Amino acid sequence: MSTTTRETTITADPAAPTVRIAREFDAPVANVFRAHVDPDLVKRWLGPRNLTMEIHRFDAETGGAYRYTHRDDDGEYVFYGSFHEVRPTERIVQTFSYEGFPDSVTLETMTFTDLGDGRTRIEGLSLFESIEARDAMVASGMEVGVREGYEQLDELLAE
Amino acid sequence: MSTTTRETTITADPAAPTVRIAREFDAPVANVFRAHVDPDLVKRWLGPRNLTMEIHRFDAETGGAYRYTHRDDDGEYVFYGSFHEVRPTERIVQTFSYEGFPDSVTLETMTFTDLGDGRTRIEGLSLFESIEARDAMVASGMEVGVREGYEQLDELLAE
């Protein structure tokens, strides 16, 4: 019998401008997926613990878009993008950029896999315009935000 | 005095999953840009000459989306995507996929440069998930569609 690995793996491919993220959750795929598309749930877990999130738009459907502000003691940061495809319980493809650097855009694909026994694995692929842009994002501390966000998602899914 | 180069250059980077396209037009940047965002104009030039285009949705604005059908004697082909950003007369960032292969998504950035004297240069960057996906798209004959489409755009801009 397997045990869920709650470790978040974050991998930067040395030969391609990508970041791959993998994480497992002790919750059914429908719940994990819903936590990614329902803005009232998204705002409770996305990003590092020290930030609060205000959502301005979050139409998580094929052809939809989103825009939100993250705030901490130092200031506020607006992020936005569009949803290329939202395939319920299976896949979300979206763009992403920080308003402060609007010319740096990533394409993000998240796939959801039902592991059985009420467990779910998600795998994310972020595609950058260049290896330099990818390395800058990794160096900016994205890893902390991803890990802490998924810890908050664990807590939300356990409610 | 420089002359507009109407040759379309299409470059596949050997080390990155990208295709770069460059083309100049004998028309002001406002007109070239408008031909990319007004669906009544887009349907007159986008794609190879032997296809007709039916547009189902074309909201060329930040957070908008599009969907259209290309038809020829052999069948019909649906394409769709979302607009990450539309920055008037400067830049369009959008996703793109063919409904027949929905898991293969590209991120496309088009920049518009005013060359003066009523001339415009456009540069496109298409970002693929892998070099293999990029090579498959190039091998599928995208080059013919791009070149013929821009010839049709020349004709439209000369009206």
Automatic annotation (TrEMBL), chains A, B:
Family note: Belongs to the AHA1 family.
TM region positions: none
Organism whose genome encodes this protein: Actinomycetospora cinnamomea
The name this protein goes by in its record: Uncharacterized protein YndB with AHSA1/START domain
The Activator of Hsp90 ATPase homologue 1/2-like C-terminal domain, residue ranges: 26-157
SUPFAM superfamilies xrefs: Bet v1-like
Superkingdom to which the source organism belongs: Bacteria
Entries under InterPro entries matching the protein: ASHA1/2-like_C, START-like_dom_sf
